[in-house]
Amino acid sequence: MPDTREDIHDRADIARLVDAFYRRAFSDPLIGPIFTDVAQLDLVRHIPVFTDFWDTVLFRAGTYRRNALQVHLVLHARVPLEGAFFERWLEIWTSNVDEHFAGEVAERAKVQARRIAGSMHRRVQGRSGSEFETLRRRAVDGEALAGANEGAGL
Predict the structure, then answer these.
(1) Angle at CA 121, nearest 5°, toward 72 and 14?
(2) Cβ distance 51 to 58 under 8 Å?
């Protein structure tokens, strides 16, 4: 049976993806309460905001002008956002993308979601958002510090 899924082409596709994703996420036993009880998000009101975010991430639309990190820092102060929450968010996002779309932009949506989830998790913990945070910097005198750089051949 041929794959009839199309790629993500425009904002309308993103809106459909975001709506389906957040309906699933809101009902999820692990992360749903964060959206409904802690953040108390009004899904209808926030779907356009989430759509702006992903439109900007995937198509560089420039429609998202908020600070997603700040929102997560505020939530983290109310309830610690643990790695399992970000993993579940990513799992639901990835399966939702795969269920509805296939193609280059759909793959980019999954890659970007993985990067965003990892960065957000590290940042709410007070760490660097970079996935390369374990690489050590060179000492002021130019000698490499022991650690990941030597093991990686850098």
Answers:
(1) 65
(2) no
